[in-house]
TrEMBL record:
It comes from Rhododendron griersonianum. Keywords: Hydrolase, Lipid degradation, Lipid metabolism. GO terms for biological process: lipid catabolic process. The keyword Ligase does not apply. Signal peptide: none annotated. InterPro entries: GDSL (IPR001087), GDSL_Est/Lipase (IPR051058), SGNH_hydro_sf (IPR036514). GO terms for molecular function: hydrolase activity, acting on ester bonds. Transmembrane segments: none annotated. This is GDSL esterase/lipase.
Length: 365
């Protein structure tokens, strides 16, 4: 799903027997009082500790991010191989770093290249000493989301967003110059969405994001955030009607509610803190490509490059023995849920050209 923040996975073609550690809040974290037992306690404590946080550099712009450390959190849109789930043909056009959920690089990889910093390595691939020395780490985990209950079907390991934050707090060195890139939320709509009440569900999901933004700010020294919104998840190949090719508009309605509330959540967080917060507008990017694919270099925006429709799973299954397209130029989707290297690269270019990413501002009524 690349820049589209649609962290959905090809579930039947991944096998891993890794153990997922659960950090939650009963662990003793640096700077976090040990008496905090749950998110409510943590949130209350954050309110009291915000004023003690060190100030951020003033008026940071996207152009000021060159050479800064980069930490990445989220789902398969930015996963760098934390559980080694993907195999070829994933990564077929870029072998050096190992397969991502694309034919090449993710938006997080291209973000690192754009700001001229090292591409963050997967957290699970690094030892304790390496984590202390390495300032660029990727905690993203395919399949999970903001809600603890969000998890793919089957014995597939993943780390929730909250646990990713805990991994950061307990293992890495802190640097207030760092950029924190977050691309998460789509899996909550794929696996946990309450189709009856989109507003209430969006508020529930974003309440978790708000808590963990405060955690990163108060206890992790985070001052610069880039947060990706959600593209219309109901329009990915896996979710389109196989007969009419129409999008799942109920799902898209939920995503729209999420994006509206995301802007308010980020603004509320920003206005009370000395932080730079940027919104990356994946939803706008998809709308622009759909309206005029050829303008952006795409000739196919509906069909995936890799994947055979599985009616039982209701998804395009892309595995090691699956035939995939060649060449891949001009395609928006690599599999039934994830965008191609071409799309991911384009997203970051347009982001830094000021066409998709901008400092968060007060939402209009």
């Amino acid at each position: 799903m690349g820049w589209m923040n649609m962290g959905y996975m090809a579930l039947m073609f991944v096998v891993c027997a890794c153990f997922v550690s659960s950090f939650v809040f009963h662990f003793s974290l640096p700077g976090v009082p040990t008496y905090l037992k749950n998110e409510e306690d943590l949130g209350n404590s954050i309110v009291k500790t915000v004023s003690r946080a060190a100030p951020a550099p003033a008026n940071v712009s996207l152009g000021d991010l060159q050479g800064r450390p980069l930490f990445v959190f989220g789902d398969s849109t930015v996963d760098a191989g934390n559980f080694n789930i993907t195999k070829l043909p994933y990564g077929v056009d870029y072998h050096t770093l190992g397969p991502r959920f694309s034919n090449g690089l993710t938006i997080a990889d291209y973000l690192a290249l754009k700001i001229q910093t090292a591409i963050p390595q997967a957290f699970n691939s690094m030892g304790k000493e390496e984590l202390k020395k390495n300032v660029n780490v990727n905690f993203a985990s395919a399949g999970c989301g903001l809600l603890a209950k969000t998890h793919p079907m089957g014995p597939i390991p993943c780390t929730s967003f909250g646990d990713q934050v805990m991994q950061f707090l307990t293992s890495t060195s802190k640097n207030e110059r760092s950029v924190f890139f977050i691309s998460v939320g789509a899996n909550d709509y794929v696996f946990s969405f309450d189709r009856k009440n989109s507003t209430q569900f969006a508020e529930e999901v974003l309440s978790k994001l708000e808590i963990y933004l405060k955690v990163l700010y108060s206890f992790g020294g985070a001052r610069i955030f880039i947060v990706n919104n959600l593209a219309p998840v109901g329009c990915i190949p896996d979710k389109r009607n196989s007969t009419t090719n129409r999008c799942d508009e109920v799902l898209n309605k939920g995503v729209n509610a999420f994006n509206r509330h995301l802007e308010q959540t980020l603004w509320n967080f920003k206005k009370e803190r000395n932080a730079a917060v940027f919104l990356a507008d994946s939803h706008l990017m998809y709308a622009q490509i759909r309206n005029d694919p050829t303008e952006f270099g795409f000739t196919e925006i509906y069909k995936p490059c890799c994947g055979i429709w599985n009616a039982n799973l209701r998804m395009f299954a892309c595995g090691e023995n699956t035939t995939y397209c060649h060449p891949r130029t001009g395609l928006l989707f690599f599999d039934g849920a994830h965008t191609t290297d071409q799309a991911n690269n384009l997203f970051v270019k347009r982001c830094f050209a000021g066409r998709l990413c901008y400092p968060i501002r007060a939402p209009t009524v």
